[in-house]
Amino acid sequence: MTTAAPFDLVSATSVDEVVEALAADREARVLAGGQSLLPLLVTRTIRPAVLIDVNEVGLDGIDVDRAEGVLRIGALVRHRAVELSPTVATAAPLLAAAAAWVGHPAIRHRGTLGGSLAHADPAAELPAALVALGADVVVQGPGGTRHVAAASLATGPFETTLAHDEIVVEVLIPLDDAGHRAAAFCEWAPRHRDRAEAGVGITLTATPDGRACGPGRAAACGIGTGPIDLTPVVDDALRSEPVDEDLSDALVRHVAATVDGVCREHGGDADRTALAGALAARAAVRAHRRLAASVAGEPGTAVA
Fold this sequence. Notes:
Radius of gyration: 20 Å
CATH class of the largest domain: Alpha Beta
Oligomer: single chain
C-alpha cells in the first residue's frame, strides 16, 4: 500500500506563524481540510518535507459587515457550513447553492473555502460562484495583506497568483440590498458527485417593484482553465424579464446558445460547451422560478 513520504508537521496558531513557516521552506504545504492535499501525498505526487496544520489559526467566521458592505467568510470555513449558513443563504444564495454540489457529505464536512480557492481546480464549484458574485480574496504574506479579485486568482489549472509564502485568509462578497434574490446552480458529472464535467450558477434579483428581473450574475466551472464569468451575457438576456411568468422557450434557447459561444471562446470543446449552455438554461429557469416564488412570498425558495 502506498503511503505518504515522511514529513514534519508544524501546528500553527496564527497566520503570522503560517507565513513564517512557508517563507522558511518553499516546498512546504498548508494542511487545512486535506481533501485535495492528502491524495497527492499518499500517491507521492508531491513530497513536501513540511506540512503546516492551520486548523487552529481561526479564520472560521461568517459575518455580515455592514460598515464595509460585504459578507466576510473566513478561509477555514467548511463547505458544509457555507451550504447550511442562514447568513450565506440570505446574503449570497448562489454560494450556498454551489456548496451543496461539492463532492460527498464527508468532503463538505472537511473541505474549506480557502483550500478550494488555493487548489484552483477548474471544475470547482465555489470559485466559480465567487467569480459570479464579484468577490475579493484576501491573502496574507510577509508583506502584509492584499486583495485579489476572485476572477483573477486562478491563472490556470491548479495554478494561482498566490506566492509560495502567501495564504488565503478570507473572502469578501459585496452585499446586495435587493429585496428579492434567488439562485440556482446546476452541474453534470458522469457519476453522482463525481468531479463535474461542467457547472453553471446563476443568481437573479428583482427590481424594487418586484415585477421584473434586476441585475443578474453567473459563472461556469469545468469548461476552461478556470472559472468563466458569464455575467454579461446572462444579465443582458434576463434583465427586465417579468418575474411572474415562465421564461419563454426562445429566451431559454438564447441563453443556452450564448453561453455555449462564450465557453467556446474560452477554449472549451464543443460537447462540453454545449453542456454548459444546457446547464445555464436549466439554472436560468430554476432561478427565475425561485425569484417569482420569493416575490410572491413563498418561504424557502431562494436556494431550493
